[in-house]
Amino acid sequence: MRKKKGLFSKSAAVLAAAVLLYSMSNSVYSDEGMWLYEEPPKDILKDRYSFDLTDSWLEHLRLSSVRFNNGGSGSFASEDGLVVTNHHVGAGALEKLSTAQSNLLNDGFYARTLDEELRCHDLELNVLVRMEDVTEKVNAAVVPEMSVDEAVKARRMVMSELEAEALKTTGLRSDVVTLFQGGRYMLYQYKRYTDVRLVFAPEEQIGFFGGDPDNFEYPRYNLDVCIFRVYEEGKPAHIDHYLKWTEAGLTEGDLVFVSGHPGSTSRLITMSELEHERDVLLPYTLERLNRLEVLYTVWAARSDENNRRAGQSIMGVQNGRKALSGGYNGLLDPELLKAKQTEEKEFLAQVLKSDQFKNVPASFEKIAQADKDSRKDYEAWRLLEGGHAFNSSYFNIARTLLRYADEVQKPNGERLREFRDSNKVSLELGLFSEAPIYDDFELLRLTDGLRFLILKLGYNNPLVQKILDNKSPEELALELISGTCVKSVEKRREIYAMTPEEIAQLKDPMIELARLVDEPSRQLRTFYEKQAEIKKQAHEVIAGARFALSQGSVYPDATFTLRLAFGAVKGYEEGGTHIPFSTQIEGMYRHGEEHGFKPPFKLPQSWMDSRQKVDGKTPCNFVCTADIIGGNSGSPVVNREGEFVGIIFDGNIQSLVWDYIYSDRQGRAVSVCSEFILEGLRSVYGAGNLADEILTGKRAEQ
Amino acid sequence: MRKKKGLFSKSAAVLAAAVLLYSMSNSVYSDEGMWLYEEPPKDILKDRYSFDLTDSWLEHLRLSSVRFNNGGSGSFASEDGLVVTNHHVGAGALEKLSTAQSNLLNDGFYARTLDEELRCHDLELNVLVRMEDVTEKVNAAVVPEMSVDEAVKARRMVMSELEAEALKTTGLRSDVVTLFQGGRYMLYQYKRYTDVRLVFAPEEQIGFFGGDPDNFEYPRYNLDVCIFRVYEEGKPAHIDHYLKWTEAGLTEGDLVFVSGHPGSTSRLITMSELEHERDVLLPYTLERLNRLEVLYTVWAARSDENNRRAGQSIMGVQNGRKALSGGYNGLLDPELLKAKQTEEKEFLAQVLKSDQFKNVPASFEKIAQADKDSRKDYEAWRLLEGGHAFNSSYFNIARTLLRYADEVQKPNGERLREFRDSNKVSLELGLFSEAPIYDDFELLRLTDGLRFLILKLGYNNPLVQKILDNKSPEELALELISGTCVKSVEKRREIYAMTPEEIAQLKDPMIELARLVDEPSRQLRTFYEKQAEIKKQAHEVIAGARFALSQGSVYPDATFTLRLAFGAVKGYEEGGTHIPFSTQIEGMYRHGEEHGFKPPFKLPQSWMDSRQKVDGKTPCNFVCTADIIGGNSGSPVVNREGEFVGIIFDGNIQSLVWDYIYSDRQGRAVSVCSEFILEGLRSVYGAGNLADEILTGKRAEQ
């Protein structure tokens, strides 16, 4: 599944083909691109698809698009606040609403009336309503004379101030976003929804049919959908812009658009940054993911209840492992490296022809040096400041409370970013969430985190010894978890109002652990923010040259902000076989049968019972060439008329290299067909009313 | 399950208790001890259990005990060559005899006639028939004036010569074994059986009921048994010494003996060696095991056939991960470290009192220094010489063929140990095994091995670059596996007869890879053999002092050679609950029920169908205090009369710390009851004839 981050491997042939199409310094000719709404690819669409992209068409799609702040996308489906996303994007909320007695993730859910809709503990949804280029404002604050330390502070300050000002003026969530690795800054403003209620979810067995083995594969048969409703002042919110659904179906070659929030790509990074990913970042992350996958799955296997408690953590870890190991394996391919190297050399050769770009070569070197300087303490940084050593929700809460008390006393612009005024609503939503935290799972995670810390920094490391305090990791974790008072949300609210001195008097063991590691953690953070600043300044120079030398449009790497992608509905060839663009419901039953309907290929009872009732010819999933990445999960796919035809939920194996390089030879985005969703609602779940609301765009009076 | 190696974690309380009982420099007072047959604990048995251990009793048990050379133990059960071991010890042989159409591991097996018995591809069984102390002979060859390099060579030479001479004289398999880390050398001679046939195996679902979650847990309900028959000259071998079985049952407090082959313990290592295990050896191994567990289980989940092919590899990896992480977690406990440290300090203080031991302190330092010097290239050594970078059966075969051609030209005493004359039969048994090797699984493993090599030594490492030869790991692995001719056993036999020059002309890609890495691999091997020699010499000095200062008997660390352990049948307290010493068949059904009979708690159909037929009160598994470790799997447990009462298959969680420290407060060895086996044979599997052969010690005329 695609959520937040998605890469992958491919056969050498796939990659070689991708490399041939790869030419970053020129404009984009294929269906490539995660385009900014403020700079849509009008000319390309006109040239390739004879499509006139109008501003009103674009605005309607933008205002119908929703960001799920936990790492996904979605869209409005009715004027009464209905929001459609993926089952795997909603899964975290489903898990938090579940108990040992009522497992919504497993069993599915359908609210027949508004009263039955369940309010989610901590979901935040955003709709992008305003965009402003603030590059000049940001860069005016960060002047060349400044030291790097001063630049870090100045940039943080100006960004926080711009955000605070915008929030104050409009009441909208306001974020300054860094594009082109530092080449541009945009102020994005969002309408924010925090009263989000669950309306419908299918069973996980069909939402994630085929499980980890089928993840990132195609053909697929997933009803990966989940439906929420946003509320304002206790009532369904009235929504002006929502997508009209169509059941007209798709034809090979149809132009479609994807409007969503791709999380992160690495297409514009330098060769040295790519090597840094390969040699430093990915090895650490993959080692950790392998470790957690074993830890969590083994624990989950002990009982159904363990499995329920660890379920979403396992999904997240497996998804990350499959996606990132794909990306890592891609980086071990000499062809990809060579293509990147060649492109960089050619760009540098071009740059050297003009005095205008004389700072560019040194900027490449600065980036390489910054990464080199970042190697030594990289793991310590992730462990301490990243919290991997304290793999515990209680620790995160304790640290947030401890730091909040300190940070809130500083001026807005000087605080750690997460404590800036404009982030207050989001911060409190997480901090005071009533979502259950399970002590047994916490113990498992925290014990392992402490062991991982020992493994990485060494048993005799002085800070490690201070943390362990002459206890075994298990003993210490047990003490921390059984002793902390941050379990209670009420207590958290109390502490949130305390002064640092009052907090110190609590002598809460988890808060005291957070305090013990706070100084070294902050030091590491400061150091890595400094390296990031050096790279931002260098990328600003490189991006400037790229903009100037580019003959066509360019788009920035993904940043989990709203983008428009386009492409054709299109099958592909694999191993001498043609893979049609769409699957059908009857194929889903066959796929289950071929695996003896054994988990994860076991269909839920509802679908087994409905086999004769459903129309087997109904389209299930389809592929298109639109350029997506993790974070696009849940993005609406619309046709030329702007009608909803499906919902992105994955990419195929061949698309996973898109993190570094786009190719539509075989790479495809995978979507759920609108017809599949409607057929399920009507014929399997007895949710005809909900289907009617979607099709009419209006909730029927009940 | 216990196979070869077994450790684990424990609650802090368990360990603290263990530590209290821990006093290595004094004699042994508890049921501790993996005693040498040549130095049995007669006095202790007399004192503690009023038991007179006679030489004839001992000889009978020794000659009835069998070593499974793939890493387990067993015992003779009839004069017609019947051998009983664990299902998990036989599982490798079962897997090799299976095909996509006939899955013996999954479905079980029973040969009703001799004709139906299936010959195993490469099982070797050993019975210890002669023992000779050769310490003086070995040490006479390694004189103080020698350099370490000379000492390595001299020791290898004298050991190989002693073995070759013994083999020539007796025809018996002859191994010189290093005991007390270098304090003593024994020449052990074995009767060897290589025609081993499968007689009976239950389904894996009951052989390994509860799977990984229940592994190393108690109470348990595993019918972990597998029955073979040894043949000589095409007929069942006639066996003089076999164990008489009893169904008389056991009573709390009964004295029992375990005769088997514990694989490895670390009770006599120094503090610095313990830290080396914690900081260097275990972190590497656990990282690799986590990685392989994810790799194999994900691949296995794709289809039943994948699962069959990877099954035993997964079991091995999971068992190792659970056991070793237990041990590693134990080493993170300050109590254990402190106990070890205190003991070492006290020993050193005692030593300093006498001039006789003046070399001892320097010996501790030499060991610490040798380990320190071993750190830098440890991973390279495991990857290259250990073959982790080339995780492939074909690679192992290719390397063996390549090296054999070189080594066989040297005098016996100068060869790499595995190519010494006395090992020829075992070497060829493996090399020419017709056991299936699956190309798809090979590709998965080899690709991953190459990626692990890159991860560990770095992409730009010159040797890594040479190995990759400008290909991606996947591409290279595919080329090697599709191109090698060592797949064919016939071809292997041809190459085995070739000169090095003829082999070079083959230009086989896998053999050429083995050649490419041969020099650096051998260099690493030489270096680590040198470190081992330094440690052996130092341990010889330390062991001498220990022998002299010890007031009672001592026993060496486990070395996968025959040992006698003893103990009492005894329940224990855990979390305020009394755990009775034995479980019963009716408890097994309840345990399955509690987990909804879902895998791995799904009982096989045969047992589901027999629920009314079997006697629910039949004892299932039992625990005792006998001192065991991985490798003891399959060991017979006998009563005072030397009668077979059960078969070791595991230790409980609390026993896993026994790798470093023995305690019988809660730690227990876990066995299958003889009654459970017999009840299964008679009431579930319709194998009454086999039960009769076991009970009468004689095959009925058919």
Largest sheet of chain A: 11 strands, antiparallel
Q: What is the helix fraction of residues of chain A, given as a range?
A: 40-55%
Largest interface: A-B, 44 and 45 residues
Number of helices of chain A: 27
Average pLDDT score of chain A:
93
Task: Supply Rg of chain A.
Answer: 25 Å
Give the class-level CATH name of the domain at 31-124 and 194-267 and 554-696 in chain A. Mainly Beta
CATH topology of the domain at 31-124 and 194-267 and 554-696 in chain A: Thrombin, subunit H
| Low-pLDDT regions of chain A | 4-27
CATH architecture of the domain at 31-124 and 194-267 and 554-696 in chain A: Beta Barrel
Taking the alpha carbons of the first and last residues of chain A, their distance comes to: 36 Å
Shape call of chain A = globular
What does this protein look like?
2 copies of one chain form a homodimer. By secondary structure, chain A is an alpha+beta fold. Among the domains of chain A are: 1-26 and 271-375, no CATH class; 31-124 and 194-267 and 554-696, Thrombin, subunit H. Chain A contains 27 helices and 21 strands. In chain A, strands 2, 3, 4, 5, 6, 7, 8, 9, 10, 11 and 12 form an 11-stranded antiparallel beta sheet that branches. In chain A, strands 1-14-13-19-20-21-18-17 form an 8-stranded antiparallel beta sheet. A two-stranded antiparallel sheet of chain A has the order 15-16. In chain A, a hairpin with a 5-residue loop joins β19 (636-638) and β20. In chain A, α7 (148-170) crosses α23 (518-549) and α26 (674-684) runs antiparallel to α27. The radius of gyration of chain A is 25 Å and the shape is globular. Mean pLDDT of chain A is 93; it is low at 4-27. Chains A and B meet through α9, α10, α11, α17 and α19 of A and α9, α10, α11, α17 and α19 of B.
